[in-house]
Amino acid sequence: MSKEKERLKKTIDLHLKKFVTAYFKNEAEVKISREVKALKKYSFKDDAEKAMAELLTVSKVTKELLQQEEERLVFESMKRNKGEA
Predict the structure, then answer these.
(1) Number of Cβ atoms within 10 Å of the Cβ of 36
(2) Rounded Cα–Cα distance for residues 24 and 39 (Å)
(3) CA atoms within 13 A on the CB side of 8
(4) Whole-number pLDDT of residue 74
(5) What is the pLDDT of residues 13-69, one digit of tens each?
(6) How far apart are CA 75 and CA 6, in angstroms?
(7) Domain spans of the chain?
(8) C-alpha dist (Å) from residue 45 to 25, 49, 51, 55, 57
(9) pLDDT of residue 42
(10) Which letter does DSSP use for residue 85 in this model?
(11) Looking only at Cα atoms, what is the longest distance across the chain?
């Protein structure tokens, strides 16, 4: 029973991680899509450069958010595993 419970828990953790990653990836794609649309509206080179800088910033922030969420999930999983041991 213990092995089955552990296997089930690992499966649930994996699916949760995939769900959270997919959610944040989708949110990031929506934000980047908005930025690309905004970029297309710019007609001058300086404005386009500013828009590209903003797009890179959004990309970096999104990457940081994904990393933080992954770290949080790992920490929670470790904490949960330690609590059951």
Answers:
(1) 11
(2) 22
(3) 5
(4) 87
(5) 777 777 777 777 777 777 777 777 776 666 556 666 777 777 778 778 888 888 888
(6) 17
(7) 2-79
(8) 30, 6, 10, 15, 18
(9) 60
(10) -
(11) 66
Is residue 4 predicted with pLDDT exceeding 70? yes
Give the list of residues 6+ apart from residue 7 with CB closer than 8 angstroms, or none.
none
**Listed residue (18, 6, 9, 8) closest to 69, CA to CA:** 18
DSSP string, 9-64: HHHHHHHHHHHHHHHHHHHHHHHHHHHHHHHHH--SHHHHHHHHHHHHHHHHHHHH
Structure tokens at 15: 């699916």
C-alpha torsion angle, residues 42, 24, 72, 18 (rounded to 10): -150
What letter represents residue 80's amino acid? R
